[in-house]
């Protein structure tokens, strides 16, 4: 490799490293203060860099939001893709595995999950490049599995889109229930068990629903 190519490669690597640093700091601010409590000025201060330099990487608070989502959904979707690739068995069992993956992902970091799935992005007058390029594939993966289950006769329902969204809604509803103040930070509630108990209860009835389809 020539000296110029090595220099360019190091430059690209350095820029990506700085971008990941910005994303990490931005995520911490959003999770702590919410969309309304974050500004590019606060982010620049946290990173100890000038705002002008920050704007060469991220053009707005909304673009920062989508940079974080792209990063987090990329990891989330890699996990889904691996489950789909490694699965041996029928498609209904695969749907149950995907539901369990969603629940485990939410349990691992509830605030991150809430930011990804349940919180609106900051408002902006313009649509930036990162937002234009952003496209979450998780619901498409779910559609793909349901479509294959229908194609091989495992599921009789033909409206794949509505069924996929219905399953997605049940899983997200389960997450929302345990993220409310009803459970709060408690690990155990006498009447309802702990969060893991409730997740397993939900998975049991998702399994039952899929079997009966």
Fold topology:
Layout: H1 3-33, H2 40-47, H3 51-55, H4 61-86, H5 91-108, H6 110-117, H7 129-133, H8 138-151, H9 160-179, E1 188-189, E2 193-194, H10 195-212
Antiparallel strand pairs: 1-2
Helix pairs in contact: 1-4, 4-5, 5-6, 5-8, 5-9, 5-10, 8-9, 9-10
What can be said about this structure in brief?
With 213 residues, the chain is mainly alpha-helical. It has helices at residues 3-33, 40-47, 51-55, 61-86, 91-108, 110-117, 129-133, 138-151, 160-179, 195-212, and strands at residues 188-189, 193-194.
Summarize this structure as a short list of keywords or feature phrases:
Arc Repressor Mutant, subunit A, Tetracycline Repressor, domain 2, mainly alpha, elongated, two-stranded antiparallel ribbon, single chain
């Amino acid at each position: 490799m020539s000296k110029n190519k090595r220099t360019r490669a190091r430059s690209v690597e350095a820029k990506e490293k700085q971008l990941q640093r910005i994303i990490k700091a931005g995520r911490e601010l959003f999770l702590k203060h919410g969309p309304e409590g974050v500004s590019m000025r606060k982010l620049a201060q946290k990173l100890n860099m000038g705002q002008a330099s920050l704007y060469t990487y991220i053009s707005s608070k909304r673009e920062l939001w989508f940079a974080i989502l792209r990063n987090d959904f990329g990891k989330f979707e890699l996990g889904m893709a691996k489950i789909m690739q490694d699965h041996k068995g029928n498609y209904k069992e695969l749907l149950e595995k995907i539901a369990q993956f969603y629940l485990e992902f939410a349990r691992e970091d509830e605030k991150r999950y809430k930011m990804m799935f349940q919180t609106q992005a900051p408002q902006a007058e313009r649509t930036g490049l990162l937002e234009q390029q952003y496209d979450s594939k998780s619901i498409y993966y779910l559609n793909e599995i349901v479509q294959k289950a229908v194609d091989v006769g495992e599921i009789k329902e033909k409206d794949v889109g509505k069924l996929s969204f219905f399953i997605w809604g049940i899983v997200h509803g389960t997450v929302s229930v345990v993220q409310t103040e009803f459970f709060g930070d408690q690990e155990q509630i006498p009447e309802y068990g702990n969060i893991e108990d409730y997740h397993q209860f939900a998975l049991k009835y998702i399994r039952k629903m899929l079997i009966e389809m």
